[in-house]
Amino acid sequence: MSAVEQPGDHSQVERATSALADVDTSGWTQRFDLLSDPHRLEILLSLHRAPGICVSDLAAALGRSENAVSQALRVLRQQGWVSSTRVGRAVSYRLDDEVVHDLLHWIGARHG
Q1: Quick one: which of 16, 35, 18 has its CA closest to 27?
Q2: Which residues form the HTH arsR-type domain (predicted)?
Q3: For residue range 30-72, what is the model confidence (pLDDT) as tens digits?
Q4: Quick check: pTM over 0.85?
């Protein structure tokens, strides 16, 4: 017997193979990787409920340091999930990715 079994149902193999072409597996893996961090997920949930929140208020809401929140926001901003707006010295953040927005609803997030 060879190391690789020969397929029994070629049409099933073709359908299974075509499923891989239909989905951006690399992109989804990256999304799930970012969502797998509980701190980033909490930030996303907070931004979903309180769009336009500033770092200090977000840090207070999450019970984390502003530095830790800023670092997580930087990662999310680099991925295009979050956008920022500066008004004077204050910077506010909001969710900026529709797919992530939909995923948050899927896991039970609601608007305020």
Answers
A1: 35
A2: 20-112
A3: 889 988 999 999 999 999 999 999 999 999 999 999 999 999 9
A4: no
What CA–CA distances, in Å, run from 105 to 10, 49, 87, 101?
38, 11, 29, 7
pLDDT value for 58: 98
Question: How many angstroms separate the CA atoms of 35 and 48, rounded?
Answer: 14
CB 82 within 8 A of CB 47: yes
Residue 1 reports pLDDT greater than 50:
no
- Check the CA dihedral 91-96-102-107 and report its sign: negative
Sequence-separated (6 or more) residues with CB below 8 Å from residue 38: none
DSSP annotation string for 12-36: HHHHHHHHHHHS-HHHHHHHHHHHT
